[in-house]
Amino acid sequence: MTYAERLKALTEERGALCVGIDPHAQSLAHWGLDDDVAGLEAFARGIVEVLGERVAVFKPQSAFYEVHGSAGIAVLERLLEDIRQAGALSVLDVKRGDIGSTMAGYARAYLADEASLRADAITLSPYLGFESLRPAIDLAHETGRGIYVLARTSNPEGGQVQLSKGDDGRVVAQQVIDDAAAENARSGQNALGLVVGGTHADAGVDVSHFNGSILVPGIGAQGGTIEGLRGIFGDAVDLLLPSASREVAHGGPSVEGLVDRVQTLLGR
Ligand SMILES: O=c1ccn([C@@H]2O[C@H](COP(=O)(O)O)[C@@H](O)[C@H]2O)c(=O)[nH]1
Predict the structure, then answer these.
(1) What number of H helices and E strands is found in the chain?
(2) Which atom of ligand 1 is nearest to the CA of 61?
């Protein structure tokens, strides 16, 4: 099955929600944990232990595992395995972007069947040029994995680049969206998704023709709300995968608190 097919099946069963697993110091302290490898492991794997069979998608933020060096990466490997075992999908938030030959290395690191850090999907930056992503796009198609390309990010600074106009009058983020849509139409796999933040009253882009998943970070701690999504995305709401990290994690460490946050975001 392709990533798009697995995502559709799971979100129909569990609801369209991505829970981010971001073990930064503030969240570890909230759980009464130290900002070390033991704290990282207890937090990250603890979230999946409680929510693994309830939530469709988990999104570990690679930065917070990399902080702890090889021991942190080993925790990330175990976490990705936990997510697989729970029957959920993983989106590894790595936001890589580089020239094509280096992108081939990143593709092997995260999208190959034999990679120890393999995830169901990853985030990539197309801002070295959309075609620089080609090795990752090709490998994702080959292995049935997905890629979320940064289009219109949730942070206030993003518009400086993403909303600047190209020669044809389209803003840069719109060019990314149109290129991703064309690639999906060509492959028929819809392996390419977009990242569009849920924090903008007007995102300044048109996703009405898009044909893949749209990951929507920024829900909760950054001010985005589930209720506000229709106003931003219109009829494309069916494509959305809203994502919340601190908003869910800070319901923990109690089981009830975590489950309650998820149920609220799912409108249950
Ligand atoms: O545009 C983007 C792309 C990615 N992110 C990442 O999502 C989480 C957000 O965490 P919250 O605690 O839910 O605010 C974090 O890992 C970001 O790096 C994003 O926020 N915006």
Answers:
(1) 12, 8
(2) 16
Predicted ipTM > 0.90: yes
CA gap 149, 194 in Å, rounded: 5
Q: Is 41 in the pocket of ligand 1 (CB under 6 A)?
A: no
CA distance 112 to 110: 6
Cut 0.80: pTM above it: yes
Portion of the chain with pLDDT greater than 70, in percent: 100
Query: Which residue has a Cα nearest atom 7 of ligand 1?
Result: 217
Distance 145 CA to ligand 1 centre (A): 21
Going by alpha carbons, the residue nearest to atom 18 of ligand 1 is 61
Which residues of the chain carry a pLDDT beneath 50? none
3-class SS shares of the chain: helix, strand, coil, % to 5: 50, 15, 35
